[in-house]
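Subgroup meeting minutes
Present: P.N., E.W., G.H.
Scribe: E.W.

1. P.N. recapped why we're keeping a running log of single-chain structure predictions: easier to compare across weeks, and new members can see raw inputs and outputs side by side.
2. G.H. added today's entry (618 aa).
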Amino acid sequence: MILDQIQKPNDIQSIDPKLYGQLAEEIRQFLLEKISATGGHLASNLGVVELTMALHLAFHLPEDKLIWDVGHQSYTHKLLTGRKDGFDEIRHYGGISGFPNRKESSCDAFNTGHSSTSISAGLGIAQARDLRGEDFAVVSIIGDGALTGGMAYEALNNASQLKSNFIIVLNDNNMSISENIGGISRMLNNLRTMPQYNDLKANVRQNLSRVPEIGNHMVRRISMAKQSLKQLFIPGMFFENMDITYLGPVDGHNISSMVSVFREARRLNRAVVVHVMTKKGRGYEPAERHPESYHGVNPFVVETGKPRKEKQQADYSDVFSKVFCQMAEKDPRVVGITAAMPEGVGLKKFRRLYPERFFDVGIAEEHAVTFAAGLAAGGMKPYFCVYSSFLQRGYDQILHDVCIQNLNVTFVVDRAGLVGSDGETHQGLFDLSFLQTIPNISIFAPKNCYELADALRFSLKFDRPLAIRYPRGTAYRGLREFRPPIVYGKSEILYEEEEIALLAVGTMVETACQVREQLKAMGHSASVINARFVKPLDQEMVEQLAEKHTLLVTMEENVRSGGFGEHVAAFCQWKKLPLRVVTVAIPDIYVEHGNVEILKHQVGIDAEGALAAILKEL
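Output recorded in log:
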C-alpha cells in the first residue's frame, strides 16, 4: 500500500504524483474501515481527502501551520503526519483525539472543536510570526457552514489589514457558486497572482500618482473600472471588497490544481482566500446521498451503511422531539430555534410539521439567543435547542438580552454533562456553573425521560427565562413510579430516611439510588432527594434535611467550581445548619475523550466514586 509509505510528516512529498489518485482511494478505504469500527466523523473527512493531500504537498509541516476550523475533518491530516497506527483507538479513552490537539502532535497548530475560530487563530499566529521575524506559511481551513458564524467575519475584518501572507482556504461543499464562471475566474486568478502583474500594478499606480493635478484622479477612475469588471466576472467580490484577494473556485478533488493555487497564494503579501469546491461524503455512496446522516456516526456496516447496533430505546432528543411537537400543535406561539443542528437536537420532525415556526440560524449561537429574545418580546414562545458546550458562546446574550428583560425564552440544553468520544471541547460540564451566575434564569434537570416530558409541558406555562438540562444518550426510564407534579422551585423526596441525605441533580439521581443501596448494605441509612430545580435552590428542603441528617451529599454531572454543590454548601454555611456537606462533582479540569462510563469513573462521579467520598467523610 502507498499509505504504508507515509510514516511521518511530509512523507507524501516523496510519493510519485502519478500515484496520488491511488493514495486518495487508499485513504478513503482506510477511513471507512476504521470509522465503521470505532464511530466518528465520516462524511466531512471523506470530502477533504484530496484537499488535505494538496495542503501537505504545498506546505511543509510542522514549520508551516495548518489550522482546521472545528477540526472534525482532520483525520486525513492525522494520517499524513504519521498517526496511522493510532486509528484503532481514535476517540477512545487514552487514544488519539478526533480533533486537532497540540499535545498529540507538533503538526496540530491549534486545538479546535467549536466552529468559526480558525481565521482568528490563524491571524494571531501570522501576526506573532511577523512580530518575531519568522518566515512560514499560515493556513486556516474553514467550511462554508462555519462562515455563518459571526466570529469568522470579525476575523476577516481584521485580516484585511494584514500586510503579510495569510491563506484562508474556504472548503465549500454546498456548490454555492456556479461552475460556469470557473474558467474566467481561474484565468483572472492566474494573471493577478503572477509576480510581473503585481509589480506592474504597483508601478502604474506609483507613476500615475506623480502626474500633476490629474494623476490621483486617473488612479481612482482606473480602480473603479477594475472593480466593476471584477463584479461581472469574479464570484469572490465579497472578499475583494474587504481587500482580501480571492482565488477560485478550485476543484477540491483535483490535487495538482489546488497545489498550484496554494503556491500562488503563498507569494502574496496579504490575506488570501482560496475557494475550494468539495463534495461531502465523496467516495462512499450512502454518505454522498445523505451527508447530514453520516456526519457523525456510530459503528456501522460498510456494505449497507446501517448501524452495527440498532437503537433499542429512544434517547433524550427523541423524547424532546415527540413532546415538543405535541406542544406546538396546542400552542401556536411555540417556535423552535437551532444553530445548524436540527437533527442533533431533535427538531427534524418539528421542521417538517411546522416549517414556518422553525428557524435554523446557522452556526451563530449568540445571534440565536438574541433572536429568541426578540421573538419573546414580540409575543412568541421561543425554544432555543442547543448543545451545552455550544451554549457557552451565548453567555453575554443570555445575561444581557434575555435575563435583564426577564423574557419568556426556554433554553433546551442537550448533551449536558459528559458526552464521551468528542472530548474536552464538547463535554457539557459548565452550564450549571455559568447559568447560575445570571439573575432571573431558572434551571431544571430531569431525572428521567418522564420528568423531561413534564418539564417541557411545565415550561409552556412558565413565563420567564428557563433552562432545561439533559444528557446525551438513551433516555433513563427508571423511577417511573416517582412522578409528582412539578412545583416551581421545589425538589422531590424519593426515599426518606436519616443520617445521610443524597441530594442529586438530573442523571445523578440514578447514581444516588445505587449509592443508597450500597450504603444500606453497610448498615447506613440514606435519603435520596431529586433536586429538580438547580436554580432556585429549594432552601426549605435543605433546612428540613438538617433536622434528621448529619451528612449532606450533593451529586451533579458538572464541574465543582460554581456548581450546584458549592451553592448548597454556601447556603448551609450561611444558615449555620448542623450539616457536613460533601460535593460529588467533576474536578476543575478538562475531561478528555472516551466512553462515558469510563470517564465517570475516572473523575469520581460514578457510584463507586461517590461511595468512596462518603465513606472517607464518615
